[in-house]
Amino acid sequence: MAAEVVEAxxxxxxxxxxxxxxxxxxxxxxxxxxxxxxLVQLSRGFYDLATEVVQLPTAxxxxxxxxxxxxxxxxxxxxxxLRTATGIGDASPxxxxxxxxxxxxxxxxxxxxxxxxxxxxxxxxxxxxELGQGGAEPAADxxxxxxxxxxxxxxxWGQPAPAAPRPVETIQVGGRTLSRSQVLDVYHARFTAAxxxxxxxxxxxxxxxxxxxxxxxxxxVDYCKELTRRLDARSGAVHxxxxxxx
Length: 246
What we know:
The protein is of the alpha+beta class. The chain has one domain (19-160, 168-233). The protein has 4 helices and 7 strands, in the order E-E-H-E-E-E-H-E-E-H-H. The chain has helices at residues 32-43, 104-121, 180-196, 217-244; strands at residues 21-24, 27-30, 47-55, 65-74, 81-91, 170-173, 176-179. Strands 3-4-5 form a 3-stranded antiparallel β-sheet. Strands 1-2 form a two-stranded antiparallel sheet. Strands 6-7 form a two-stranded antiparallel sheet. Strand 6 (170-173) and strand 7 form a beta hairpin. Helix 3 (180-196) runs parallel beside helix 4. Residues 1-8, 134-159 and 161-166 have low confidence and may be disordered.
């Protein structure tokens, strides 16, 4: 009897653009948005991403939130599970920047998602959002809002989520359409990176200072671009000083 030939699953090509990486103090990190881009590339849109709140932040646990994430890639024709990975993330005022301290549940979920995606994609770079407040050791990641434990959704198969009951505020950035939630994710990541890099930032609400989370999207995007420019300039200066000292 001839042996049955089983074809190996075909995954999409993984090629995350460099715009989703950032260099801080000579070390390269990947942004959580870049990991999501990689997920879509690998799965060709046939995936399920689910998160669960394990611990809500309370006074008894020092406002520490804990979330888990599970990501699964399916075979388009049969729905067979081809690859799955999980991750856990925690966040508290002690391991996030001051701009994110009131969003620890959201940060814990993002950190969990980033860990699960790095495991699934085989990405060795640490996600920037996984860094603690001091940037010393990776702890976990940040992403979409989550105010209470969520029920596990059915596999999305990569299809768009149902339309929201009200219009979602969006903005065009570099040819991409970003929601306010996505813009704020990038904003918080850039702000955290700037704090860890020791950049001098004006107080919030003052001229040249960071805008609030409910500020107009163009204002937030412009400030993100300014932080990116200053981080890149600082990174270049660090490299130049290191080369000159040898």
